[in-house]
Protein backbone atom coordinates (compact mmCIF):
# COMPACT_ATOMS: atom_id res chain seq x y z
CA UNK A 1 0.00 0.00 0.00
CA UNK A 2 1.23 3.49 -0.79
CA UNK A 3 1.75 6.56 1.35
CA UNK A 4 -1.24 8.14 3.05
CA UNK A 5 -1.64 11.87 2.58
CA UNK A 6 -3.56 14.19 4.87
CA UNK A 7 -6.44 16.16 3.36
CA UNK A 8 -4.33 19.31 3.61
CA UNK A 9 -1.48 17.67 1.69
CA UNK A 10 -3.91 16.47 -0.98
CA UNK A 11 -5.33 19.96 -1.44
CA UNK A 12 -1.78 21.34 -1.74
CA UNK A 13 -0.87 18.72 -4.33
CA UNK A 14 -4.04 19.44 -6.30
CA UNK A 15 -3.14 23.14 -6.37
CA UNK A 16 0.32 22.23 -7.66
CA UNK A 17 -1.30 20.04 -10.30
CA UNK A 18 -3.62 22.86 -11.41
CA UNK A 19 -0.62 25.10 -11.95
CA UNK A 20 1.22 22.44 -13.95
CA UNK A 21 -1.85 21.68 -16.04
CA UNK A 22 -2.37 25.38 -16.74
CA UNK A 23 1.21 25.62 -18.02
CA UNK A 24 0.58 22.85 -20.54
CA UNK A 25 1.49 19.64 -18.74
CA UNK A 26 -0.69 16.57 -19.19
CA UNK A 27 -2.44 14.67 -16.39
CA UNK A 28 -0.07 11.66 -16.67
CA UNK A 29 2.96 13.99 -16.40
CA UNK A 30 1.51 15.83 -13.42
CA UNK A 31 0.57 12.60 -11.65
CA UNK A 32 4.09 11.27 -12.17
CA UNK A 33 5.59 14.48 -10.74
CA UNK A 34 3.33 14.22 -7.69
CA UNK A 35 4.26 10.57 -7.21
CA UNK A 36 0.71 9.29 -7.60
CA UNK A 37 -1.27 7.35 -10.19
CA UNK A 38 -3.63 9.02 -12.63
CA UNK A 39 -6.52 7.23 -10.92
CA UNK A 40 -5.49 8.71 -7.58
CA UNK A 41 -5.26 12.17 -9.13
CA UNK A 42 -8.78 11.89 -10.55
CA UNK A 43 -10.16 10.46 -7.29
CA UNK A 44 -8.60 13.30 -5.30
CA UNK A 45 -9.85 15.91 -7.76
CA UNK A 46 -13.40 14.54 -7.57
CA UNK A 47 -13.31 14.45 -3.79
CA UNK A 48 -11.24 17.48 -2.81
CA UNK A 49 -11.24 19.69 -5.92
CA UNK A 50 -12.22 23.26 -5.07
CA UNK A 51 -11.83 22.77 -1.32
CA UNK A 52 -9.58 24.73 0.94
CA UNK A 53 -7.23 22.81 3.23
CA UNK A 54 -9.38 23.61 6.28
CA UNK A 55 -12.54 22.37 4.51
CA UNK A 56 -10.78 19.13 3.54
CA UNK A 57 -9.60 18.65 7.12
CA UNK A 58 -13.13 19.24 8.44
CA UNK A 59 -14.53 16.74 5.92
CA UNK A 60 -12.08 14.11 7.14
CA UNK A 61 -13.03 14.82 10.78
CA UNK A 62 -16.74 14.51 9.97
CA UNK A 63 -16.18 11.23 8.11
CA UNK A 64 -14.29 9.84 11.10
CA UNK A 65 -17.04 10.92 13.51
CA UNK A 66 -19.69 9.43 11.21
CA UNK A 67 -17.86 6.08 11.17
CA UNK A 68 -17.66 6.14 14.99
CA UNK A 69 -21.39 6.86 15.29
CA UNK A 70 -22.27 4.10 12.82
CA UNK A 71 -20.23 1.65 14.89
CA UNK A 72 -22.03 2.73 18.08
CA UNK A 73 -25.40 2.32 16.38
CA UNK A 74 -24.49 -1.16 15.15
CA UNK A 75 -23.43 -2.16 18.68
CA UNK A 76 -26.72 -0.86 20.11
CA UNK A 77 -28.69 -2.78 17.48
CA UNK A 78 -26.84 -5.96 18.51
CA UNK A 79 -27.64 -5.26 22.16
CA UNK A 80 -31.33 -4.83 21.30
CA UNK A 81 -31.40 -8.07 19.32
CA UNK A 82 -29.71 -9.90 22.19
CA UNK A 83 -32.23 -8.53 24.70
CA UNK A 84 -35.11 -9.58 22.43
CA UNK A 85 -33.72 -13.12 22.27
CA UNK A 86 -33.31 -13.23 26.07
CA UNK A 87 -36.86 -11.90 26.49
CA UNK A 88 -38.19 -14.67 24.22
CA UNK A 89 -36.48 -17.23 26.42
CA UNK A 90 -34.10 -18.48 23.76
CA UNK A 91 -31.16 -18.55 26.17
Overall description:
The chain is built from four helices and no strands. With 91 residues, it is an all-alpha fold. Helix 1 crosses helix 2, helix 1 (7-22) crosses helix 3 (38-48) and helix 1 packs across helix 4. It is elongated and about 70 Å long. The model has no long low-confidence stretch (mean pLDDT 91).
Write the layout of secondary structure elements.
Elements: H1 7-22, H2 27-34, H3 38-48, H4 53-88
Helix pairs in contact: 1-2, 1-3, 1-4
Give the tags:
91 residues, mainly alpha, 4 helices, 78% helix
Mean pLDDT: 91
**With helices defined by DSSP (H or I, 4 residues minimum), what is the helix count?**
4
Q: Uncertain runs with pLDDT below 50, 5 residues or more?
A: none
Biggest beta sheet attributes = none
The end-to-end span amounts to 45 Å
Using only CA atoms, what is the Rg? 21 Å
Shape summary = elongated
Class inferred from helices and paired strands: mainly alpha
Number of strands: 0
In short, what is this structure?
This protein is mainly alpha-helical and 91 residues long. Helices cover 78% and strands 0% of the residues. It has helices at 7-22, 27-34, 38-48, 53-88.
